[in-house]
Amino acid sequence: MNVRSYNLCPMARTSGSHSDITGPRLRAAAQRLFARQGYAAVSMRQIAAEVGVQAGALYNYIPDKQGLLFDLMKSHLDDLIAAWQAEAKGQNPLDALECFTRFHIRFHLERPDAVFIAYMELRNLEPENFAVIEDLRKRYETVLEDILRAGKESGVFSLPDTKLATMAVIAMLTGVTTWYRDDGRLSRDRIERIYWNMVRKAVGA
To answer: Which of 28, 35, 110, 144 has the smallest C-beta neighbourhood within 10 Å, fewest atoms?
Structure first.
């Protein structure tokens, strides 16, 4: 499979290009615009204006808008998987499930724009890039499925189908990003506790 790879590091600059453009600034600007307006509605000219440069200068850093979308999605999932790998997992399925629940909520509430793009813009990925992102998503989903399967096999959880339960739990947890507000009536810690109680009941623990 011939998959294009992007890292948003500066390419060789042409004479007169803007040296103050950085990968992080470009990524942040594109992420804000994609999350607010949708990938299809955002032009390279808009992204350039957000960063404060001419549109042509962007191509010193990225080959095209598709590469930018792919980079945003892949970076988000790479960070998600790496952060989970560094997390304390728990000594048994029940503890591991609580750890996963709290981790997923904390990680995603810090990145609502990245989460929105990662889920809503899959349809705009080219096939090769979609395959890469889908593989990363499945790697993360397998983490939860393995926890649920271990709990079912040990009699801790009562589940008719672990894969279906995996999809349902992840959808429920990720959905927090669509309505949570920092100035709302519930703190993040309170939300974690409420959702953990719901997840625990949902898997028959």
So the answer is: 110
Spatial separation of the C-alpha atoms in residues 107 and 192, rounded to whole Å: 11
What is the reported pLDDT for 137?
95
Residue 55 maps to a domain: no
Q: Using one digit for the tens of pLDDT, what is the confidence trace for 115-165?
A: 999 989 999 999 999 999 999 999 999 999 999 999 999 999 999 999 999
Whether the Cβ atoms of residue 97 and residue 170 lie closer than 8 Å to each other: no
Report the b/e string of 181-193 with b at 16+ CB within 10 A: eeeeeeebeebbe
Assess if residue 28 is contained within a domain.
Answer: no
Q: Which domain holds residue 126?
A: 67-202
Residue 23 is assigned to a structural domain of this protein: no
How many domains does the chain fold into?
1
Rounded-to-10 torsion of CA 99, 101, 107, 108: 170
Residue 43 dihedral angles phi and psi, to the nearest 5°: -100, 160
Given a contact cutoff of 8 angstroms between Cβ atoms, the answer to whether 93 and 157 are in contact is yes
Burial group, residue 155, by CB count within 10 angstroms (0-12, 13-18, 19+): exposed
The single residue listed with the structure tokens 């719901």 is: 198
In this prediction, residues 9-21 reach a mean pLDDT of 43
